[in-house]
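Technical annex, item 7. During the second reporting period the consortium partners agreed on a shared format for inverse folding records so that results from different sites could be compared directly. Each record opens with the tokenized structure and is followed by the designed sequence. A conforming record, contributed by the partner at site C, is shown below for reference.
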């Protein structure tokens, strides 16, 4: 088992402040009659059921307050959000991933959501990564799949490079990792207005993400999720200064990706081909350097996974059902002493500490009541064969 830098004593000192989802019904009622893409319960109840995610604020051993959203059972999937966002914004997508048989753990980074800022001011990406590591330790997660959107992709890449033994797979979602983005940041040091322009484009992309006219029902649901984030930014716009400066000061991501490759950690970069904030060439560069693969979301902009909550789970289902994924799963399970057909209880005993805080934070869930969505994603996607062929040549 991978070693943990946090002590058990430190984890026992972790304090928890909980906001019950019933008091903040961001996902709507549990029997939502709207066309939410969730199959009707087969038990004759005629209801549409989504798992209810629980929001918590935990206090780490060092006193840092961190926002965590959690639900589900099984192998942990840790999600780190993008710049100006927070974990709960991805609730619709996360609930569908829970229904696939995973535990989702969305962590708010410093100065985002329910997480307080860094005492150093937050101008260095390395400090954000260290905070992420402390949270993973104190939650009691031994090993997980790590997903990162935009800025979150940078954080999980650095974490995976420094702690490959804690990572099952790295999944980059339009992440700011790769040589194209590194060049953009380098150029912005000479002309900071370049990043200001990118920020403007990102704002426009975020507004376009809410489908006001095309899908008013989805717009209402997403609006309920976005509302608290927008209010927080309007109340204290300067709290984004630290994360913004850390992006401006970030150095090359090349060493991280190469280190991930040497460690043999699988990497998948899923990227929209219409992302003008972080170009698709960024994902291709990241995959080449890490020996990974690229999944191109056709027509996807920077926030495609928020625009269509069916998209990422559908991509996951396709990827995880491949022969390559099945072999990787069997290998990962064997490394922690699990059989390929291990039960949920056995999986959780292997991937979490016995007294794991994350298990205590997880709301009770009737796994038998979950039903995977039968709705189709608005997007199509494909594997970038050119990158796959180049990676294969490098490996051969």
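Designed sequence (site C submission):
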């Amino acid at each position: 088992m991978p070693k943990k830098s946090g002590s058990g004593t430190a984890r026992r000192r972790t304090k928890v402040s909980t906001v019950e989802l019933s008091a903040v019904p961001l996902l709507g009622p549990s029997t939502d009659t709207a066309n939410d893409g969730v199959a009707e319960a087969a038990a004759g109840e005629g209801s549409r059921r989504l798992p209810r995610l629980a929001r918590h604020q935990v206090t780490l051993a060092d006193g840092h307050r961190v926002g965590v959203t959690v639900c589900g059972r099984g192998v942990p999937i840790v999600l780190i959000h993008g710049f100006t966002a927070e974990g709960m914004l991805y609730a619709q997508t996360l609930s569908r991933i829970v229904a696939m048989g995973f535990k989702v753990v969305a962590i708010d980074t410093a100065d985002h959501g329910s997480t307080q800022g860094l005492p150093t001011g937050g101008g260095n990406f390395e400090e954000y990564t260290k905070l992420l590591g402390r949270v993973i330790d104190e939650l009691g997660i031994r090993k997980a799949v790590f997903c990162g959107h935009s800025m979150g992709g940078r954080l999980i890449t650095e974490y995976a490079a420094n702690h490959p033994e804690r990572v099952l797979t790295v999944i980059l979602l339009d992440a700011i990792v790769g040589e194209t983005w590194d060049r953009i940041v380098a150029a912005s040091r000479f002309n900071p207005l370049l990043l200001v322009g990118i920020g403007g484009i990102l704002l426009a992309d975020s507004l376009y993400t809410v489908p006001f006219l095309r899908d008013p029902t989805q717009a209402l649901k997403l609006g309920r999720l976005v509302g608290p984030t927008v209010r927080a930014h309007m109340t204290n716009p300067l709290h984004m200064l630290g994360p913004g400066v850390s992006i401006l000061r970030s150095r090359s991501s090349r060493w991280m990706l190469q280190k991930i490759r040497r460690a043999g950690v699988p990497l998948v970069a899923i990227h929209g081909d219409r992302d003008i904030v972080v170009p698709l060439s960024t994902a291709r560069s990241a995959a080449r350097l890490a020996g990974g693969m690229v999944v191109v979301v056709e027509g996807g902009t920077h926030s495609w996974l928020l625009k269509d909550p069916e998209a990422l789970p559908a991509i996951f289902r396709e990827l995880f059902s491949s022969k390559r994924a099945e072999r990787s799963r069997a290998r990962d399970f064997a490394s922690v002493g699990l059989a390929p057909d291990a039960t949920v209880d056995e999986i959780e005993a292997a991937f979490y500490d016995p007294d794991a805080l994350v298990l205590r934070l997880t709301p009770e869930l009737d796994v038998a009541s979950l039903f995977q969505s039968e709705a189709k994603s608005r997007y199509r996607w494909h594997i970038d064969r050119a990158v796959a062929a180049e990676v294969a040549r490098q490996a051969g």
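The radius of gyration is 20 Å. The chain has 16 helices and ten strands. All partners now use this format for quarterly exchanges.
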